Amino acid sequence: MKVLMFGWEFPPHIAGGLGTACYGLTKGLAVNGVDVAFVMPKASGDEDQSLIKIINASDVEVDPRFSAFFQQGGDTTYIQVNSRLIPYVGLDDYYNVINQLDSGMLSGDTYGGKRRYEFSGRYGSNLMQEVDRYAEVAAEIARNEQFDIIHAHDWLTYKAGIAAKKVSGKPLVVHIHATEYDRSGEQNINNAVYGLEQYGMSEADMVCAVSNLTRQIVIDKYHIPADKVVTLHNAVIPTDKVVERNKNVKEKIVTFLGRVTFQKGPDYFVETARKVLEKDPDVRFVLAGDGDMMPRIIERVAELGIADRFHFTGFLRGDDIDRMFGMSDVYVMPSISEPFGISPLEAMRANVPVVISKQSGVAEVLQYAIKVDFWDIDATADAIYGLLHYPALSKLFISKGKEEVNNLKWENVARKLKGIYDKVINR
Fold first, then answer.
1. Which of 42, 122, 179, 342 is the most exposed place for a label (fewest CB within 10 A)?
2. Using an 8 Å Cβ cutoff, are 255 and 265 in contact?
3. What is the pLDDT of residue 65?
C-alpha cells in the first residue's frame, strides 16, 4: 500500500506537536509495511528519510495554466499568476485540460513555462496564500505520483488533499490534530479557518480525530456524520536514550512546555505558581515556549512579584527539550482545550511526573498522571505540591508512568490506521 501524505512540518524543524505526530505516524506505518511519500511545503534536507520519501513542495514545478481554484461553499478562490490571459478552469476539469494538452488540442506555447513556488513552511502573514499554492502543487504531485490513498494533516493541508483527490480519483483521509475551537475558544472563532476545516472534513472519505474529545467536537460543531469520524490516539516514539538528571540549582523545578497561547493555558500556570509559592517559596517555574500571550504572561508574573522565581526559555526543540526535562521535578500541562497533548508522554518517558488538565485527549489514555480541571488552580497547586514534597508519590508516578508510556507505541496506532485505509480503499 502506498500513501500520499500532506503535512506542514516534519522534524527536526517543528513548531509544535503536529510535526512530532507526523514523524511517529510515518515511522509506524513503515513498520506495518506501508510506503509513505510525505509532502511538506519546505524541506531542509536533514529530515529522516530512512523509512519514508520526503517531497519538497518548493522543488515541484507547476504549470500556471492550472492555477489553484477550489469550490468551497459555492465560492471560487483564485490565485493570480503571471501568465497570458486564459480562462481558469476548476479542478473537476483538470483532467480534461491535461488530456487536451497531451493530445495537442491545446497549445502549451500559449501559456508560458512552468514555475515553482518558494514556500516558507511557516505560519506567517501570507499563510493563506501558501495554503492555496500548496494545493496547486498537490495537484501536480498527484498527477505524477503512484499511490493508493491520500492522507492530509490539519486544515493547512486539507485543500491540498482535496486537490489531489480530485486529480487522481483516490480516496482521502483527513487527520484533525486540533480544531479552531481548541485554538481560539468558542467566542473567537476564525471563520476562514473553521470553513477550511469543515470543507476538508466534508470532502474526506474518513476523518481521524486524535481523541474522543476531538471526535465529539468534529461531530457537534462541524456536523460531520459520526460514522465517518474515528478516534486515533497519538503515541510516543520509544527511545533508549537516558535523560540525565542535571540541575545547577537546589530548588525544585516545575515546567510548562508548549505554545504560549490561549489554548495551552499559560495564564493558569502562572496563577498556579503563585499558589505553590505561597506554601513553598523555594520552587522555580520554567515557561518553555513562545506565542502571542507572552507579553501578557510576563506582565502578570511581574505584577504578582514572582519574577525571581520564573524563567522564560523561549521555544525549545530536540536536545534542549531533553535537557529541560532533565532539570524538571514536575511537568504541568494546564490546557484549556487540548485535542491530545504529546508533551506529557515525552515528560513521562524522561521520568518526570505530570499534572495534566482533564480537558485533554491524552487524559483518555493515561492512568498514572494527576488530572485536574484547567481552571482549578487550587487543585493544580495541591497536585504540584504533593509531587514535590512526598517522594513516595513522585516515585510511584515516575515508575508507573514510564511503564505506561512505553506501551503507547506508534506502530500500534499505525496498524489501526492501516485498517482504516483498507476499509476506505475497498468501499
1. 122
2. no
3. 64
Domains of the chain listed by start with CATH number: 2-235+412-425 (3.40.50.2000), 252-406 (3.40.50.2000)
Work out the angle between the directed axes of helices 191-203 and 212-222 (0-180°, nearest 10): 100
The pLDDT of 355-375, averaged and rounded, is: 96
- CA pair distance 364, 21, nearest whole angstrom: 17
pTM across the whole model: 0.82
134 neighbors 143 (Cβ within 8 angstroms): no
pLDDT at 97: 43
Grid coordinates given for 241: 536514550
Closest residue by Cα to residue 23 from 33, 40, 351: 40
**Residue range 117-148, pLDDT digits in tens:** 999 887 777 888 999 999 999 999 999 999 99
276: closest CA among 395, 401, 387? 387
Could you read off the pLDDT of 147-206 as tens digits, one per residue? 999 999 999 999 999 999 999 999 999 999 999 998 888 888 999 999 999 999 999 999
**CA 177 from centroid of its chain's CA atoms:** 5
Contact call for residues 235 and 409 (beta carbons, < 8 A):
yes
Residue 83: CA count within 13 A, CB half-sphere: 21
Q: 203 φ, ψ to 5°?
A: -80, -20
Grid coordinates 500556570 are at which residue?
A: 269
Q: 254 vs 5, 240, 265, 282, 343, CA distance in Å?
A: 37, 25, 15, 11, 14
Give the span between the Cα atoms of 3 and 30, in whole angstroms.
11
Q: Within 13 Å, how many C-alpha atoms sit on residue 302's CB side?
A: 6
